[in-house]
Amino acid sequence: MPVDLLSGVSVALAPLLPWPVLGALFGFALLMVLIAAARRARGTWLRLLAVAVLALALINPSLVQEKRDPIKDVAIVVIDDSPSQAIGYRRARTERAAEQLTERLKRFNDLEVRVVRSAEGGETGGTINETHLFDALNRAMADVPRRRMAGAVFITDGQVHDVPQVPGKLADIGPIHTLLTGDRDEGDRRIAIVQAPNYGLVGKPVELTIRVDDMPGRQSADAAVTLRQDGGAPSTIRVPVGRDVRVDLPITHGGQNVLELEVEPAKQELTLANNRAAVVVNGVRDRLRVLLVSGEPHAGERTWRNLLKADPAVDLVHFTILRPPEKQDGTPIRELSLIAFPIRELFEVKLDEFDLIIFDRYRRRGVLPQMYLENIADYVRKGGALLETSGQGYAGPLSLYRTPLGSILPAAPSGQTVDSPFLPTVTDVGRRHPVTAGLPGDRLDAAPSWGRWFHQVDVTPNSGTVVMQGAGNRPLLVLDRVGKGRVAQLASDQIWLWSRGFEGGGPQAELLRRLAHWLMKEPELEENDLRAHVDGNRITVERRSLTPDPRSVTITDPSDQTSTLQLTDDRTGRAIATVTAAAPGIYRISDGERTTLAVVGAVNTPELADVRSTGDRMQPVAEATGGGIHWVTDTDSGPNPGIDVRRTQPDRSQTGSGWIGLRANGDYTVTGVTDVPLLPVGAVLALVLGGLLMAWRREGR
């Protein structure tokens, strides 16, 4: 056993004269002795003795004794806290092995033991997608000189993802041993996303490549994979095991399209977490096709055109009826327009190709036959979008409401109009609707900061939601869902005043942008919806509703454990809460009516790619540092590493059957020095004079 106080003894030389002078004197004296010896003079050896004693005295040797305090070596125990350690009995074995190992290391008084976990100080704000044990090791020994390192012990399942590419660089920190917490000959099945695009065009499918693997070897010919898109009805396909398979994902809407995949369990399974995968593809519209029909020229017509043409992603088809058919002035028909109005092509043949149809101050004038207006109503019911901005004509007998479109328009005209200044305001429900919530200039405790309008059609809502009101609190903007489509009705044609900056203008661009995107079913503008946003390992759950909803949501994690989360309403139509995900995977969130998914971590996270316990990854490190790889065994009393720990010399073997070694460096600090001269002055003089006298006497005989 090491002692508390070590003594170091050495001989130090402190010459009384410079070495060149001593060399010359010693050479001269030796020459005289050699001459005397050649002449066979008596007393030569006595003179040689005197010269030697004198030379030794001039060299001034002393005995130096150091008082040394030993410095403790440092041994680091790195504990794997990654999600794969939760499989089976690995966590229990890990904790028990760490406890017993640290107890055994305490018996070494010259050893400082540091225990660090992989989850401490690791990825902040991110989930555990990989196991980084060497990062934890570097943090633990950041303040320790390499000469003090006794070695390290990793307690892990062996799935370590930050193993250095050149393990030999770790040799100077001592042996790195690995204690494996899993079982030998484990098997598992997984499903992996081999290839998946990030974006896809709405209305067109994208191609994915998936793969099902049985590890360590192929155990079955094929497997059943269940597919579910956006939480909808499941469908099942059979895929061959061990081969890439292509799957088509239809992009049905803008925003996130989530496809869940789940493969049936195999005969051997460690976890079902990697039997599931998810693909998130953002749906984008290639070109938004908008049909704008203006019933007559007016000051606000250019506002619509400028807004839509300013967006390079919009293909605009715009027709303005300049001359109504009832006007007869003898103008030849070929001179009435630059091109013929392609009524049949637009409203029958290619109607379904448009994403949005806008009627701006349109009234019945016989230009569009009733059958084509009926086609538009059917187009909306099947999923189309219609925006109607009402002019003076909507209140009269030629109103669009008195056509087949009246069956889908949410507000009926009373026959009256208001021609006086008024300030458009957002209703209480409108402040919760994503189209009008938080509009720039809107204020809860005061009138809005935008400008006034001067004309409004008096309408009575039959359906839908009134999100803005105008003169005398009359409905101004009404939103409605009809069948699979959507309709918006603006009971005024003077939004162009905001674009001209009248009385400070207003948020016309933002309002119309939100309105168009809501009509085209952009998920971010759904007024009654449940969604989840993922940032690292944080899941933010958001529920939008037009009325306060106190219900909590249920979160099902990748291991099918459920928890409850209470949302906090912010009075703008949103109820929000944030939760931290403990592991990567697919989280299902439901409020009993709607369900959404949150995909935490990478699509093919390395942490779940292979969860079998193995020493293959750590083998190069063990060979480079002299460490060993051992399995944690189970005993009657519980998990036990079954490994003895020894202190070993740096040049000896560091591991063996049933034991691991931590090198003893023997480093120390010097606390004191004692310097004792070997030749006292008196003794030196006596020896020199005695030798010379004896030599003189010898010669005198």
From TrEMBL:
Q: Keywords, A to Z?
A: Membrane, Transmembrane, Transmembrane helix
Span list, region Disordered? 628-658
InterPro entries assigned: Class_I_gatase-like (IPR029062)
Gene3D superfamilies found in the cross-reference section: 3.40.50.880
The UniProt transmembrane annotation reads: 16-38, 45-64, 678-696
Which domain of life does this protein belong to? Answer: Bacteria
Q: Can the keyword Zinc be found in this entry's annotation?
A: no
Q: What is this protein called?
A: Glutamine amidotransferase domain-containing protein
